[in-house]
Amino acid sequence: MIKNLQDIVTLHNGVKMPGFGLGVWQVQDGDEVVNSVKYALKAGYKAIDTAAVYKNEEGVGQAIKEAGVPREDLFITTKCWNADQGYESALAAFETSLEKLGLDYVDLYLIHWPVAGKYKDTWRAFEKLYKDGKVRAIGVSNFHQHHLEDLLADAEITPMVNQIELHPLLSQEPLREYCQSKNIKVEAWSPLGNGKLLDNPVLKEIGEKYNKTVAQVILRWDVQNDIITIPKSTKEHRIIENANIFDFELSPEDIQTINSLNKNERTGADPDNFNF
Ligand SMILES: NC(=O)c1ccc[n+]([C@@H]2O[C@H](COP(=O)([O-])OP(=O)(O)OC[C@H]3O[C@@H](n4cnc5c(N)ncnc54)[C@H](OP(=O)(O)O)[C@@H]3O)[C@@H](O)[C@H]2O)c1
Q1: pLDDT score, position 221
Q2: Which residues form the active site (predicted)?
């Protein structure tokens, strides 16, 4: 379990990844994303999660430069969008992302969704990028167990991370167990259910016991379950609030109560049925 905002988890290739970071989906390029990333870096965050399709890689890169944090202290994730999947197109998409970010390398590059018939070719491109030293780690996102099994049947390198929708209403226990058995770290997207979980009465009641907000309770539940988490906010006070979870511990009973909220309920698309 990570003990503070800068604490790391070690991926199966030895690369150290912060267990907590800032997500920037639905954050406007320009001032909004530049400010969000700067607030996070000022608050001590080291990891930023973007994607080509978020169309804000340039702003993320600008914030990194302006904040003046040494590059080697940061952990930057971006993702290959569905339309760019395939061997040559994924290689080209990576170069575009790198240029927009203004970086020499990316820490973690993810296949954004398991596009049928394409993700194995995309993965070969990822393996090349990894071997060429352009990315420190490679992984996938939105992969069910069967997608991973299919990928692993031909892969030379096992993905280091699977970033999936994960929150108390979609706790993904079977997939988490499978990933653990393969040494693949699980990272939660929409940990706050894209903001929709924040008025959950059970979580509110737990929060009151610890004098913490619902967001803090959920993010602490992630940490205590060894789930890498990347909440998004554009507001400085919430970016600070979300990271202020290392001074309390949820009891085993409260962890169990939160586990029991699972309804396999998604806020986003099912990776077996997406049309983008
Ligand atoms: N791989 C994928 O397919 C995928 C899909 C979705 C997301 N992601 C990644 O996961 C990250 C997080 O997911 P997400 O952006 O969907 O949502 P989230 O982190 O679950 O929730 C963000 C929402 O909650 C609000 N919020 C955040 N902290 C709060 C707080 N302390 N109190 C009250 N409201 C708060 C935010 O509003 P304000 O901004 O107004 O504070 C925003 O509306 C994304 O940004 C992205 O990096 C990946």
Answers
A1: 98
A2: 54
Q: In which domain, by residue range, is 48 found?
A: 13-260
Q: So what's the pLDDT on residue 126?
A: 99
Position in ligand 1 atom list of the atom nearest CA 234: 39
Helix axes 31-43, 236-243, angle to 10 degrees: 40
Helices and strands (H and E) in the chain: how many:
10, 10
Instruction: Please tell me the distance between residue 165's alpha carbon and the centre of ligand 1 in angstroms.
Output: 11
- Which protein residue's CA is at the shortest distance from atom 10 of ligand 1? 189
Residue 105: CATH number of its domain: 3.20.20.100
Ligand 1 centroid distance, CA of 168 (Å): 14
- The mean predicted confidence, pLDDT, of the chain is 98
Instruction: Tell me if 213 is assigned to some domain.
Output: yes
Query: Any idea which residues carry the catalytic annotation?
Result: 54
| Residue 112 marked as a ligand binder | yes
Q: Which residues of the chain have pLDDT under 70?
A: none
Q: Is residue 272 part of a domain?
A: no
Q: Does ligand 1 come within 6 angstroms of the Cβ of 23?
A: yes
218, part of any domain? yes
Say what the pLDDT of residue 161 is.
Answer: 99
Residue 23 falls within a domain, yes or no? yes
Question: What letter would DSSP give residue 270?
Answer: B
Q: What is the pLDDT of residue 25?
A: 98
Domain count, the chain: 1
CA distance 56 to 32: 10
